[in-house]
Amino acid sequence: MKGQGRGRNPPASRAWKGDYAATGCVSTKDGSAAFYLEKVNPMKLMRVTDPQIVLELIEKEFQPLVAETAALEEAGGRVLAGPVYAGEDIPGFDRSTVDGYAVMARDSFGAQEGLPAVFECAGEILMGQPAPALKRGQCYLIHTGGMLPAGADAVIMLEDTETLENQVHAYRQVAPGENVIRKGEDLPRGDEALPAGRLLRAQELGLLASLGAREVKVYRKPVMGLLSTGNELVPYTTAELPPGKIRDSNSRSLAYLGRKYGAQVLESEILVDSFDHFLEKGRSLLNKVDFLVFSGGSSVGARDFTARTMEELGEPGLLVEGVSVKPGKPTLLANCGGKPVLGLPGHPVSALVIFSIFGAAILQRLSGRKPRPFQPAVRATLTRNLPSSSGRTDYVSVKLEQGNGRALAIPVFGRSGMLRILADADGFLVIPAEKEGLLEGEEVDIFMWE
Fold first, then answer.
1. Neighbour tally for 118: CB within 10 Å
2. DSSP 8-state secondary structure symbol assigned to residue 428
3. Taken in order 195, 220, 318, 305, is the CA torsion positive or negative?
4. In which band, very low, low, confident or very high, does the pLDDT at 20 lie, cut at 50, 70 and 90?
5. Among 100, 160, 180, 448, which is least packed, fewest CB within 10 Å?
6. What rounded mean pLDDT belongs to the chain?
7. Contact criterion met (CB below 8 Å) for 86 and 212
8. What domains, with CATH codes, occur in the chain?
9. Whole-angstrom Cα distance, residue 125 to residue 102?
């Protein structure tokens, strides 16, 4: 639906008028401007300029996938869909934290150099075996992790003792509970062992195994669809390049990153620059996946069909039409029927940086993983000045070297289409939007590629 309005100041870009947007204007005889109004959905033309807002949109617009049950040996790297409670005490018995002698602590009181406490050694507690109850004046040789005998409440470290035939001389007194972990001290029965939303790392898997968990409820692993676009692209397996063609390098890099962040990846053939082709292949792949990625096609140009395709794939459609970052400004994000669709710039540096920020955030959201308040980074000293524009977040590729006993961050420069930059870089640093650059000698955080 279109209409006309008049005004003295024609809009320089799209201007809002209620549920309508001014999409064009013409001059009239009296010097005023007539502009065309198009009925639109304001959400679809949202202009997001700050990357933090994009991350907030991802959290708001998309939800974790449904839960499923996975065997513990298959659960590493997945995210818990519900809390896990301890069905038993961990540990299940009082145990020693050192190699030494299990004793009644009161029998050691007053022991010191020159005046040792003397114990009768009643034997050795074998690992995995219980021991008879301890009597006054007795001790048992015990190893780290061994079960304390009934009556014992402390362990004297081996280096604080001396053995003379069947006697053990202790040259240091111990307090009740010293060098001992009590039953249930690590995790009492009925307590929450792990909360929902916890990523299952080696540590969590070990804890679950100690509880005897054979399977756990986790969020389903997301399936990511990947579509490379552009008439200039040919498969990376092409042996001899025709004139004007380049191999599709982004598909291999992005597929690897998708798997790294926990997704199963499905790929389609390279899309030619045709809206009908974009829509057909995009719709077909979106039906099979939880998250769709277009690589290329989001740069400004007459043959840009990615945004149009996103609008057609499902409601509410396009959410983000450019982000105030460098590289990667022409990034697109859409919600197509509840599924995220990300449009990446075609240049390799831009595509990988943007996917590592927003693509990773999408996959973590779908996987049920909660946003982390901090990101692991390497602290390094910047080796040169880095100018930037205020109001724009810059991501600068760097390589790390050791110098004068500290890590040095050396910027790697080049155009965003140059693959050598990526191969030389160990990671990237961030110049915040509120700063106009960084100075040589500043301490910076480097976010590592691996």
1. 13
2. E
3. positive
4. very low
5. 448
6. 88
7. no
8. 2-40 (no CATH), 51-63+221-366 (3.40.980.10), 67-90+185-219 (3.90.105.10), 95-181 (2.170.190.11), 378-448 (2.40.340.10)
9. 9
Question: Do the Cβ atoms of 345 and 296 come closer than 8 Å?
Answer: yes
Q: How far apart are the C-alpha atoms of 171 and 445, rounded to whole Å?
A: 50
Query: What percent of the chain lies above the pLDDT cut of 70?
Result: 87
CA-angle at 189, arms to 185 and 194, nearest 5°: 85
Separation of alpha carbons 231 and 236, rounded Å? 14
Helix axes 275-286, 306-313, angle to 10 degrees: 40
DSSP H helices, 201-305, are 202-210, 250-260, 275-286
Residues 254-309 have pLDDT tens digits of 999 999 999 999 998 899 888 899 999 999 999 999 999 999 854 444 347 899 99
Cβ 111 vs Cβ 168: under 8 Å: no
Pairing verdict, β 154-157 and 138-142: unpaired
Q: Find out whether 321 and 45 touch, Cβ atoms under 8 Å.
A: yes
Question: Do the strands 339-344 and 291-295 form a parallel or antiparallel pair, or are they unpaired?
Answer: parallel
For residues 295 and 227, give the distance between their C-alpha atoms in angstroms, rounded to a whole number. 6
Taking the C-alpha atoms of residue 346 and residue 416, their distance in angstroms, rounded to an integer, is 9
DSSP codes, 71-118: EGGG-TT-BBSS-EE-SS-BSSS-EESSSEEEE-GGGGTT-BTTB-EE
- Name 117's Cβ contacts closer than 8 Å, sequence gap at least 6: 107, 108, 109, 110, 111, 169, 170, 173
Nearest partner of 83 among 216, 220, 210, judged by Cα: 216
- 76-88 pLDDT per residue, tens: 999 999 999 999 9
E-strand ranges in 112-261 read: 117-124, 138-142, 154-157, 161-164, 167-170, 180-181, 192-194, 215-219, 223-228, 233-234, 246-247
Rounded distance, CA 181 to CA 210, Å?
Answer: 16
Amino acid at 128: G
Extract the tokens encoding 395. Answer: 């991501």
Q: Return the DSSP state at 44.
A: G
Encoded tokens for 422: 């990526």
Q: Give every strand in the sheet of 332-336, ordered side by side.
A: 264-267, 223-228, 291-295, 339-344, 332-336, 316-321
Residue 220: closest CA among 133, 117, 318, 291: 291
Q: What is the pTM of this model?
A: 0.80
